[in-house]
Amino acid sequence: MKGIFKRLKTTLNFTDVCLSAHTFRHTFAHRFLMSGGDVFTLQKLLRHSQLKMTEKYLVLWGNALKENNDKFNPLNSIGI
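RESULT FIELD:
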């Protein structure tokens, strides 16, 4: 598995970046949530047995999620 990341790092010219499976996992989770994905689907995709394991992504990117919620939440348009 390390060989894949080493080749990818070389191909993408990421010489000063720590590239690992863990990095890809976090990046995927972050982008999934920022693109409007829900935490329950993310839990299944990451194969977390408990939602608490997935909720850490909500905390890490809470400000961005709050901004998206404020921007796109349909309840905001009805004054609730």
